[in-house]
Amino acid sequence: MYTRRRSALPFLLPGLIGILLFYVVPFFGGIWYSVTDGSFKNEFVGIQNYISVWNNSMFQLGLKNTFELSLLCSPPLWLLSFLFAMLLTRIRPAGAFFRSGVLMPYLMPSSAVLIVWLLWFDYGGPVNHLLSLLGIPRVSWLQGLPLRFPVVLMFLWKNLGFCVVIFTAALQAIPESLYEYAALEGASFRQQAFRITLPLVIPSAFLVLILTWINAFRIFKEIYFIGGAYPDEPLYTLQNYMNNMYGKLNYQNVTTAAYMFAVMVFALFTLLFLLQKRAQRGLT
Amino acid sequence: MKSFRHGLVLSIILLLCLLLSGAALAQGGNAVLFHDNAAADGGYSTSYISTMLTVGSRIYAFMYGADSHLLAYDTQDESAEPQDLGEVFSYSYDESDPGIREEVTAYFTWQDQIYAILTRYESQEEDEEPMPPEGGFIRRMNLEAGTTELLECDLPRLDWEPMIEGEGSWYGIRQIRSSFCLGDTLVFLVYDDSYSDLLLFYDLKTGRCEEQYMQNISSIAPGPDGKILLCRFLWEEADGTCEISLFDPASGSSEILSKLPAASGNVMALCFREDNNTLYYVAGGELRAVPDLDFAAAVTVNDCPLTSNPIAAVIPDGRILLYDYTTALLRTTDPEARQEIALRVTDYAYLPVMDTAYYDFIASNGNASVIIDRYGSDRDILQAMMNQDSSSDIYTLSMSSAAFNALYNRGYMASLSGSEKLTALVDSMYPAAASAVRKDGDLVALPLSASAYGLGYNPKVLAKAGLTEEDMPRSWEAFFDFLDQVPARLEGTGINVFPYWHTLSDIKSFLTTQILSDYESYAASKGQPVDFTAPVLLNLMDRVGQLEAEPLGLQTDLEEENGISYEWQEDVILLDLNTPLTVAAYNSEFTALMLSLDEGEPISGYQMYCAFVNPYSLHPREAASFLEAAAARLSRPDLYTLSPANNEPVRYPDYEEYKEYLHQSLAECREALEKEEDPTVRSDLEENIASLEENLASIDDTYWMISPGAISAYQARAPFLVPASWGMMGMARETYDEAIWSLFNNFAQGNASGRELLEQLNKKYQMMLQEGN
Asked: Are strands B100-110 and B91-93 parallel, antiparallel or unpaired?
């Protein structure tokens, strides 16, 4: 075992050096910025930046919106992608074609797609036209709170394919013989789903949840295209805050906000990880 | 003993020979052969370089403009004045048939001689079918006699058909963008009829031509082994890419040498030096060398301040000749001769004064070179500061940019207070400009340019409409009252309130941005918080929203889309949107109209561009010295705008020549009138004489670059002009923030009310404020 570990080291080393140089060192190096005053003299100010950023109303707004948007985006995406994956594993022989198809939005440039979405959700666009036909009053989708709806839809549309691929791989990795054996033993569909499918899919489901959540935290490009540096309040995210702070050369606030957010995300994912372990134990 | 002495003498002679031959082969240093600075001073050049050709150790410059003449520079003694070889032949009329005109289409060098290619044009009667010009006649310049005389020579006439453009109704000669000889082949780069690039290869022994079509060629140069170096700009690639390749005319094939990102500067001025197999090119203010055509080994060997697509050639001592219309330089490529100090100026504000300062600075600092880089964005400066990057010594930025605001607030500007010259200049400026570049009493930036354009009225048109200066409004509120009333006053006069090519939404957009910019400047100057929902703004935006196209004689957007045609008419426009509020390098017929937001004085902002020294610079003293050179060379309009100490009016540079021309023309017309008997021609001549006399009578009053009236008018409004700082309007202009501009557009097109616009803007502005700096 020891020999195997030693022989693996040369193969791991280039990757580890890369991670060390481009992730670990900047991560800890950035901490220095967050405890200095940001002027040319760069004086040490302790946790003053953390206090001022935490008390900043725009940071608070960005944080709140980022979490709200992630909650609006991640669970539906997670659920939809699971259902789509189930469906695609059932469709044969055209499943591969559809699996490739759902990946297409993931490959398309956001700026180009966004123009189409904006036209759809324009006040005189097809979505409002449809609502009018149904007798529902038209909505100003591109202003205020309703603007979240097209943003969430676009997130779902863009990321669905990637999550479907992960779920599909997990579902296809379950040996067919397990279901045949369970069926012979007289297990019902419900029992098969909860005793075979779910326990074996949970690790992938957890991965999808984490990835979708991380992606949802990073929603910015679409918002920036629509609302610029200062979009309507319901769409102002932490990324807006950090981007604007960078434009003002305030990398102290950029790093401070980033570390505070990183701590929150770390805590959240640790909790999710513990929940996943517990759920998996319960199911097996 | 004798043999020893002989040996010693021989050794000394041999050593001297070696030293002298070494000296003869060694490169000279950098040199400025010609530089015309008129444009940088707000004027214009009266003489410019058309072509430069090298024959032996001499460089010949074909000068055009006020007088066309040929200058010869001796590359072994650049300090000597160039020899003027006299007037250059440009065109002549056939003595036997004045309808035939011969013109020089191009000059080229071949086998240490200069040749001219002539084209013959025959003028046609109106009812005759146009004929294509004849050309390709080669003449040799009589350099042996030291003249510009063109002599017949043995070279055959070139096949001129590929050089002729147009067909049927008109013909012309293609413009030659680049030309050189490769052995006995003369190469031209021209545009074809559909603006594709066309390479023409002329065999000088037979006159035959071969054609090669290309795409997106930006420059060409002779390369190794009879091949041609091509630089193509690949528009289709993201962020732009310059592709440098080697084209073999024999096989018609190309070999790509490198693809360079355009972000590092457009590749210009390609040239190839055979003796060291090195390619040279200019990009980002640098002259770069590519030994053995290996771009991985490319190094910067010198600076090059030329940006107007300069042309390069290698001269016999190995230096590079670089020239554009106004400047000719020699740049050494010898690494031993490189300057000790290389300053880098990152000039994202594109200030011409930096180019002017360059020549003064290198003339007085022989040990320094200056690279002026203009490729990049303000964000690069922020990134550089984060990295404590010392590679750039001086930066230039607009004072209203986010980057300037951030760097100023955080103290990322080195102190310039140590320079007496800079401090004295800034102290002499208007207080608003001087205080904007000081931080805690320390001078940290140098204002180098300032400009603003806004509303203006034409006094002549005002008088024509029966109005007086007293009728002009003083406040924005009164301005909208004026717009309500003035159409009735102008009825039947043929006068338009605004330029008639504008649409209603153009005018609304202009007025909205002008009012809001004025408001930001007003609030900043009074130290008041900005509130875009202030009653005064709500009221003014309502007034903007109420404007109608018809009474103001404006087009609607729909009419514009349908294409209304109009003819240019003088003296029919009462109000202009582009009148200089600062001192300009021309005599505007419009008088600036500054309007106040309240009962007080009108306050308006102007764009001020500043230079500052990088606090991480390794050469802060030299950088400050460079800024001193820039300060001493501020253009007249900028100097007069920034400093009240300047009161001397400035004539246009060609004032004397123009006056002389008018006198001469008048004398010729009078003489012709005395001899002329035809009443129609006499009538024309009398009209000309009257017009010339009128011009002569008014030239002293009107032919000013900066007139006494313009100076006094500016000095009266200068106390109310303040440099625009970073704010909502600055952000909108700088970032082209779609969200903000769509708010303006919606309002201008009547899809949103003034209140909606202001509330949205205010929300964004309050968010900006709450974020903090």
From this structure: antiparallel
CA B580 to chain centre: 19
CA gap B243, B131 in Å, rounded: 40
pLDDT-derived band of residue B694, with 50, 70 and 90 as boundaries? very high
**Radius of gyration of chain B measured on its C-alpha atoms:** 31
3-state secondary structure B652-708: CCCHHHHHHHHHHHHHHHHHHHHHCCCHHHHHHHHHHHHHHHHHHHHHHHHCEEECH
Quick check: B767 and A230 CB within 8 A?
yes
**Contact between residue B151 and residue B191 where contact means Cβ atoms under 8 Å apart:** no
B349, B609 contact by CB (below 8 A): yes
Residues of A in contact with B772 (CB under 8 A): 56, 250, 253
Per-residue confidence (pLDDT) for residue B424, from 0 to 100: 96
Handedness of CA B381, B385, B387, B389 (dihedral sign): positive
Which of A48, A221, A242, A248 is the best substitution to test chain B (most B C-beta atoms within 10 A)?
A248
B267, exposed or middle or buried, with CB in 10 Å at 0-12, 13-18, 19+? buried
Q: Are strands B241-248 and B228-234 parallel, antiparallel or unpaired?
A: antiparallel
Q: Which residues are paired to B555 by β-bridges?
A: B503
Average pLDDT, chain B: 87
Structure tokens at A103: 């990946």
pLDDT tens string B110-154: 999 999 999 998 877 767 777 888 999 999 999 888 888 999 999
Quote the Cα angle for B487-B492-B497, to 5°: 35
What Rg do the C-alpha atoms of chain A give, in angstroms?
A: 23
Measured between alpha carbons, how far is A142 from A128 in angstroms, rounded to an integer? Answer: 12
The whole-number pLDDT of residue B9 equals 57
Sign of CA dihedral B292, B298, B300, B306: positive
**Cross-chain CB nearest to B410 (options A39, A228, A241):** A39
Q: Is A259 on the interface with B (CB under 8 A)?
A: no
Amino acid at B710: A
Q: Do A40 and B615 touch (CB under 8 A)?
A: yes
Distance CA(A80)–CA(A96), nearest Å, equals: 18
* Predicted complex ipTM: 0.83
A227 touches chain B (CB under 8 A): yes
Query: Residues A37-92: pLDDT tens digits?
Result: 888 888 899 999 999 999 999 999 999 999 999 999 999 999 999 888 888 887 76
Environment class of B712 (CB within 10 Å of its CB; exposed 0-12, middle 13-18, buried 19+): exposed
Given a contact cutoff of 8 angstroms between Cβ atoms, the answer to whether A192 and A183 are in contact is: yes
Residues of chain A with pLDDT under 50: 1
Q: Are A167 and A201 in contact (CB under 8 A)?
A: yes
Q: How far apart are CA A167 and CA A184, in angstroms?
A: 26
Q: What is the mean pLDDT of residues B491-516?
A: 90
**What gap in Å lies between CA A90 and CA A172, rounded to an integer?**
10
Q: Kindly report the CA angle at B314 between B308 and B318, in degrees rounded to 5? A: 130
Which strands sit side by side in the sheet containing B228-234, from one edge to the other? B217-222, B228-234, B241-248, B253-261
Find the length of chain B.
773
Say if residue B24's pLDDT is above 50.
Answer: no
**Are B219 and B232 spatial neighbours (Cβ–Cβ below 8 Å)?**
no
CB interface of A with B, residues 186-225, below 8 Å? 225
For B528-561, write each residue's pLDDT tens digit.
899 999 999 999 999 999 999 888 888 776 565 5
DSSP structure string for B307-354? -S--EEEE-TTS-EEEE-SSEEEEE---GGG--SEEEEEEETT--HHH
| pLDDT at residue B569 greater than cutoff 70 | no
